[in-house]
Amino acid sequence: MSFALRNSLRTAVRAAPRRARGLATESPALQAYQAEEKALAHHAAETTELWRKISYYACIPGIAVCVAWVYNTEVAHAEHIEHIKHENGGELPETPAYDYLNRRGKPFPWGNNSLFFNPHTNKDMDA
Fold this sequence. Notes:
It contains two helices and no strands. By secondary structure, the chain is mostly helical. The chain is elongated.
């Protein structure tokens, strides 16, 4: 076939009217699928609202109760520490130097204290 004949044949095929493709809107399978999708969207909306209510009415008050409990516990602990200091002349008593405490196989690169050393709660190993 020659080039011109092939191009004219392609043009004729492309120009021919095509049959319209209709959607099967009357299909029972399609209607069942659409009903299932609608039910699924409705269920998702209800479940979202349920978990929103659980978050607002259960989790947030629960967190507030836990915060209050921890605060009260820490206040009692601080009072106890102050009481021990008062009994011992304003300082905490020296902790016993047990052999099994603060065992080091090799020194830390940053010194004898741990990386998260807090002088208010941890014993200073350099002193």
